[in-house]
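Q: what sequence does this backbone want?
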């Protein structure tokens, strides 16, 4: 009988559960999910996100910090502007899969 590494307790340490938990925690807020969806399409500045989502600048900035700390979002400086982008395109696929599961009957 064979077992996969994911189901074998002897290989449980091979997974970085802390990193996955940080990622999922960063994504576990509706406004942050909305930010990720927008950044999956194109780079944006805080002012763009504020206008598109109708949230306060301080709220957007706090969410971006959480997403940056989790490695989801990156930033590119251009003059006095900071342009945010999705640092890991795989996250967009993860969200699409999560939406599929969440909306399944």
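A:
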């Amino acid at each position: 009988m064979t077992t996969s590494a994911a189901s074998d307790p002897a290989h449980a340490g091979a997974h970085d559960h802390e990193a996955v938990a940080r990622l999922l925690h960063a994504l576990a807020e509706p406004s942050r999910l909305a930010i990720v969806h927008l950044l999956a399409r194109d780079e944006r500045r805080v002012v763009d996100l504020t206008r598109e989502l109708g949230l306060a600048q301080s709220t957007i900035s706090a969410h971006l910090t959480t997403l940056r700390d989790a490695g989801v979002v990156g930033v590119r400086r251009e003059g006095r502007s900071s342009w945010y982008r999705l640092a890991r395109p795989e996250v967009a696929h993860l969200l699409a899969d999560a939406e599929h599961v969440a909306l399944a009957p």
